[in-house]
């Protein structure tokens, strides 16, 4: 009788491969290194971004520069009725800085009264050497402009007020003309102040000399 082959025998000479551990342990250090690299790159990016923004954002801007930046930002963004509120606030902030008033916290009617007065925050107080006719001309542009922006911001939209882009362009242009006119008046006012101060100093310095001449006579 032929003996059946036992499958459990005859394979004793097969050697198993040595166990060097699981392959899952190999990617661990690589992943950790990649994570560390990403963190370093992120920190570097944030530092560079903060450093680049620090100078223009934190530096003190002049009233005119701040106004122009606000106008440009509004022009680049989506136009809504609230845009006219922001435009009005930009102009009011400019007035507040150059006239040393509190125009941001006042209503349009109160701004009108303040500009026409002689107290701090008015045109006459900031520009005492400027002819009143020129001050009235500037005021007659500012007040209607603020009223127009109030209407565009809060009145219900109609067919006449539905073209926000055209309305914004017109209002922004007028506001820029106001700022330009006031800048020019303030510059001339400063020049007049220098001239008056120089003349006063000259008068004071020559007075003793004149007195001596009179004494000799």
In short:
The chain is mostly helical and 217 residues long.
How much helix, percentage-wise, in residues? over 70%
| Rg on CA atoms, Å | 38 Å
Please give the count of helices.
7
Q: Which stretches of 5+ consecutive residues score pLDDT under 50?
A: 54-58
Intertermini distance: 165 Å
The counted number of beta strands is 0
Mean pLDDT: 81
Structural class: mainly alpha
What are the secondary-structure elements, in order, as H or E?
HHHHHHH
**Could you tell me the strand content as a percent range?**
under 5%
Taken from the alpha-carbon principal axes, the silhouette is flat
Question: How would a textbook summarize the main sheet?
Answer: none
Walk me through what this model shows.
71% of the residues lie in helices and 0% in strands. With 217 residues, it is mostly helical. The protein has a domain at 63-193. It is flat and about 80 Å long. The termini are far apart. The model is unreliable at 54-58 (pLDDT under 50).
Please name the defining characteristics of this protein.
217 residues; mainly alpha; 7 helices; 0% strand
Topology:
Elements: H1 27-58, H2 63-76, H3 82-99, H4 108-116, H5 123-126, H6 132-154, H7 164-216
Helix pairs in contact: 2-3, 2-7, 3-6, 3-7, 4-6, 6-7
């Amino acid at each position: 009788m032929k003996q059946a082959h036992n499958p459990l025998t005859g394979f004793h000479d097969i050697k198993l491969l040595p166990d060097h551990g699981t392959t899952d342990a190999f990617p661990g250090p690589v992943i950790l290194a990649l994570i560390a690299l990403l963190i370093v790159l992120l920190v570097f990016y944030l530092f560079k971004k903060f450093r680049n923004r620090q100078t223009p954002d934190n530096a003190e801007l002049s009233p005119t520069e701040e106004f122009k930046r606000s106008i440009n930002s509004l022009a680049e963004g989506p136009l809504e009725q609230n845009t006219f509120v922001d435009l009005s606030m930009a102009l009011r902030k400019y007035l507040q800085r150059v006239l040393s008033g509190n125009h941001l916290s006042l209503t349009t009617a109160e701004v009108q009264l303040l500009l026409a007065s002689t107290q701090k925050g008015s045109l006459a107080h900031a520009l005492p050497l400027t002819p009143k006719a020129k001050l009235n001309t500037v005021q007659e542009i500012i007040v209607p402009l603020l009223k127009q922006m109030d209407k565009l911001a809060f009145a219900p939209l109609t067919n006449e007020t539905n073209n926000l882009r055209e309305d914004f362009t017109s209002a922004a242009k007028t506001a820029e003309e106001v700022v330009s006119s006031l800048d020019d008046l303030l510059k001339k006012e400063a020049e007049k102040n220098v001239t008056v101060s120089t003349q006063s100093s000259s008068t004071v310095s020559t007075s003793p000399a004149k007195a001596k001449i009179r004494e000799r006579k």
